[in-house]
Design brief:
With 119 residues, the protein is mainly α. It has four helices and no strands. The protein is globular, with a radius of gyration of 17 Å. It starts with a helix and ends with a helix. The model has no long low-confidence stretch (mean pLDDT 80).
Length: 119
């Protein structure tokens, strides 16, 4: 039993390392995609467009509605630690990570319900 537990822990650590690398690459790609003017930062309009793109990509998989522009502006204000009015990559990451986690949890929950109650 202990050996099985140790194997599970090692596997979870391995998956976590792979997930973090994959997720970081996706966040970097998203940042570069929504930085429409290519100035190295994301303004409020670019952030909202990026959030809408994220929700459109998962719409077929997860039944969710995107946040309002006002909600995204509040997220941006809380993430804009240098008060520049725009987000650098690290500030952008603090907005995208919780949104992505919410979508993932929601998707997993809907998937579990679908499997448990297929009718």
């Amino acid at each position: 039993v202990l050996a099985g537990l140790l194997i599970c822990i090692a596997a979870a650590d391995w998956l976590n390392d792979r997930w973090n690398g994959w997720f970081q690459a996706k966040v970097r790609n998203a940042f570069e995609t929504v930085d429409f003017d290519k100035n190295g930062s994301i303004d409020g309009t670019e952030l909202y467009a990026g959030v809408l793109l994220l929700y459109l990509k998962v719409k077929g998989l997860v039944k969710v509605s995107p946040p309002t522009m006002d909600t995204v502006r509040k997220l941006m204000d809380s993430a804009d630690v240098d008060r520049s009015g725009a987000l650098d990559f690290y500030e952008f990451q603090t907005v995208i990570e919780p949104l992505s986690q919410q979508l993932l949890v929601r998707g997993m929950f809907q998937w579990a319900i679908t499997l448990a109650c297929p009718w």
